[in-house]
Amino acid sequence: MSPLPEALKVGIDSIDQRHEEFYVLYDTLKNATDKDFLEAFDAVILHTQGHFAEEEADMGSVVYPNKTEHKQEHQKALDEMNYFREKASSGKLMFAKAYVKDRLGDWFRTHLLNMDSDLARVITLSC
Hints:
The protein is mainly α. 80% of the residues lie in helices and 0% in strands. It has four helices and no strands. α2 (34-60) runs antiparallel to α3 (67-89) and α2 (34-60) packs parallel to α4. The longest helix has 34 residues, at 93-126. The relative contact order is 0.16. The mean pLDDT is 95.
């Protein structure tokens, strides 16, 4: 059974698979001990970089009117992750943990339900 809730699936297997992978890595990060936090954060960032690159390739395969805004959201999210990853590595672990707990999951859900669902809709209409 998929760990990604049904309500968060967009109906395109490749996109849902990427979201599922993020969801699992995010859950690991959210529950990481102080000792394992940086390694888990690195895994989330690495996955997200590839995830966004694949999603942006999907955008390029169709006429997607919100491409610029969507890509800007991706960059903003990566910038935030890298900012808080740097805070964690410089000794401000609790600051980074608060971001992960209070912001990152909400961002993922909102982005998925709005922008990624919109992209899935356009891809489906293009097929």
